């Protein structure tokens, strides 16, 4: 359930997206709010500026959280973001241990506004293969 406090922080994330556009960057903004609702960090999309496909604000903040927050705090931290996280960012959010994401615009709504946003090709994946070889470094690492 989205509360009035959530809406206020979500508006701040949308404001970060608007500021990103004013700076010539893509229109996406995010922030992390700690357990008490305090803003811990903010970011906006800098993919073009940084020439870095991973420079989404959600992934930047997930990486920040993984570095800077202990596990218990991360689990009680909420990410507020102007758009629903993409698959890359969602994976980073899960791995960072963040407890919640609140977003303004769904992926479907984004694609409706900008069809190119959903025009990613499928990538062929073949495997698994070479189990007996591939398992050796995994077993060596997790055995210690």
From TrEMBL:
GO process annotations (BP): tRNA wobble adenosine to inosine editing
Phylogenetic lineage: Bacteria, Bacillati, Actinomycetota, Actinomycetes, Kitasatosporales
Name the record gives this protein: tRNA(Arg) A34 adenosine deaminase TadA
Stored Pfam families: dCMP_cyt_deam_1 (PF00383)
Alphabetized CDD domains for the sequence: nucleoside_deaminase
GO MF term (any one): metal ion binding
Residue ranges of every copy of the CMP/dCMP-type deaminase domain listed in the record: 4-121
InterPro entries, per database record: CMP_dCMP_dom, Cytidine_deaminase-like
Bilayer-spanning residue ranges: none
């Amino acid at each position: 359930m989205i509360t009035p406090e959530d809406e206020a922080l979500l508006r701040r994330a949308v404001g970060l997206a608007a500021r990103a556009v004013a700076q010539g960057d893509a229109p996406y903004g995010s922030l992390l709010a700690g357990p008490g609702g305090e803003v811990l960090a903010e970011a906006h999309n800098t993919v073009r500026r940084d020439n870095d496909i991973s420079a989404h604000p959600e992934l930047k903040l997930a990486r920040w959280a993984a570095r800077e927050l202990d596990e218990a705090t991360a689990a009680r931290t909420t990410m507020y973001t102007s758009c629903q996280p993409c698959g890359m960012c969602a994976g980073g959010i899960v791995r960072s241990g963040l407890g919640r994401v609140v977003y303004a615009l769904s992926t479907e709504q984004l694609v409706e506004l900008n069809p190119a946003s959903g025009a990613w090709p499928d990538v062929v994946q073949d495997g698994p293969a070479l189990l007996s070889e591939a398992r050796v470094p995994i077993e060596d690492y997790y055995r210690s």
